[in-house]
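Task 17 of the worksheet. Students: predict the tertiary structure of the chain below and write it out as structure tokens. Keep your answer in the requested format; marks are given for formatting as well as content.
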Amino acid sequence: MWPGGTAYIIGGGPSLAGQDLCLEPRDDLYYQKRYGLEAYLYDKHCIACNDSIYLGMGWIEIAWFCDYEWANKHMEFLLLFSGRMGSLGHGIVAHAAKLNTPQFRKMKRGKEFGIDTRPGTVSWNNSAGNAAINLAWHLGAKRVVLLGFDAGESVVRGVRETNWYPRKGKQHRSTWDRFLKAYPYIKDDAEELGLEILNATPGSRIREFPFVRLEEVA
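Model answer:
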């Protein structure tokens, strides 16, 4: 789908709520009346993970989720989603009948860490966001830009948060440490495959990829 292109992967980290991104329309015909992430990404190849699909119903190209409980809870919205959808996880099979549309694709679970190059196969890498990096490679992307990949807490509007959206309970540091375990493997495989990965997440704990500002790469 995206041969040689750039994939923007939107995670659930709290930094998304704190980024000061284009709060006023740009002085450009194509950006008028577009704010925040949409002003930068509305015409880009975007994969949104889990709740981040709510950020852009009209411009997010792929909704990606790996938790059957999450899929069941958000099924009404998923059935209205106009873009493509992808999933990884055994429990999703139970819900596939509801998502029996041409735009839904279930991927096979591959090796534990890194980038699995077998057709239709994705490494879990301990999180949906990390798995989406592998998905982007399958779609032909040569560059990936990570957004909302904090792997930790951030202060948003004076409150320490673990996600940009409200959630019951806080994520524990052990959860983020599991996320971090995958990145050295992803980095090694990406370098071997010629996939450039950039981190546009302010304050991210992920150190394997160069830091950039979204305004510089979108």
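Marker's comment: Residues 22-26 have pLDDT under 50 and may be disordered. Strands lie at 6-10, 45-49, 62-65, 84-88, 104-109, 121-122, 143-147, 154-156, 159-161, 196-199.
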